[in-house]
Amino acid sequence: MPLYCGIVGLPNVGKSTLFNALTNANALAANYPFATKEPNVGVITVPDERLNKLAEIVNPQKVQPTTVEIVDIAGLIKGASKGEGLGNQFLANIREVDAIAHVVRCFDNDNVIHVDGSIDPVRDKEIIDTELIFKDIETIEKRLEKLKKQAKTGKPQDVKLVEIAEDVLSKLEQGISARAIELDDDGKAFIKELMLLTAKPILYVCNVDENSVKEGNAHTKRFQECVKDENAQVILISAAIEEEIAKLDNYEEKMEFVTEMGLSEPGVNRIILSSYKLLDLITYFTAGEKEVRAWTVKVGSKAPAAAGVIHTDFEKGFIRAEVIKYEDFVEHGSESKCKDVGKLSVEGKEYVVNDGDIMHFRFNV
Question: pTM above 0.85?
Fold first, then answer.
């Protein structure tokens, strides 16, 4: 099942422009609210210099990077939790994503209309936070009503769930997002089951003007101060610049443009990598003459599950995994040389995959 990162924000903050830059999917980017009426889904390539290095060493017939799916969701306005604007659709769409990239507008431009008439990223963030919390409160209240009826039987598990639900509800009513609530394993499982909107991991993307990409501006400084206690990453990008970079024909032209802007890499690269980490993902590689390929697994995945990403038969008939660390492969230059110097390990079903592992699976079906 693919993992999705949703781009959210108020109308006209640059969501669709950023989506275009990320995916080249040409989502409609217009100067009026609700230009994106249906969620656009794009597949984005995860940049990884390790893959390029492995390709240089192995010289395969094909190089295949890993990908993650990103969703551009219709803009939200105040009152969305009560159905205002496209609120119901927005909230339904955001419930389906695994993580959130929240775009806030941090640039002044009289030609681009703001839905609330002025530029204030802190206010914009609070509008979305409030609407998501309101919807989560509604979700918890409905579930709590059912749980209280179940708890009348006196079953300890039902009673505990009532306590968990009441605690979460209390925190939400104080304006605390579900992701910031400390819970035990039962509580975490309960939150996950409910698919609470404010429980999803979040990345803030400050959309700035061209001159503010490196150092930020008054808007971004105020916003960063606002979110300093959230343990969330904040990235500064100019969505308009990123869209221009994405339109260039090849890598060399793109990097020349980036260099001229005084940057080390396109901003979308940082967003993609941050989204990847936000989704709790890591990469392992397979490397052979036919193909060098990056594969995606969740942090903590064991070897059979990693094999299953390639093909379900690999997981069903898993025998063992032959593993080489990326650094060792680069140092010694081939699988055979790594084996000769004892840098190839044979691992069983309990092996937990590490980011950057180069793996070869033995299986029998």
Answer: no
